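Researcher: Please predict.
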Amino acid sequence: MKLELRGGILMAETEYGAALLDEKSGEYWTLNPTAAVVLETMLAGRGTDDAVHALTERYDVSDSLAQEDVDRILTELRSAGLVHEN
C-alpha cells in the first residue's frame, strides 16, 4: 500500500512532530512525534510493518503497542481525509 497526502495538503516538520495544512480551507492538524514517524515512513513508500519497526526502534514500546498506534494513526488520518492509498 502506498500512502499519499491528499492534494492540497502540505506537511511541515515542527519541533514537536509535524503539522498538516489544508491549503483550501486553512484548517490544520498537528501530529505528535509518533504520528509524524508513522506518516513519514508511509509517505516514503514503506509499509505498516516498517512503520511499526520505526516506532520500536525509536521508542521503548512493544511490537503490539506500536502496531496499535500505527493502525489508530492511519485510521485517524484517513477519517480526516488527509491521506489516500494509491
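Model: Helices lie at 33-43, 48-58, 63-79.
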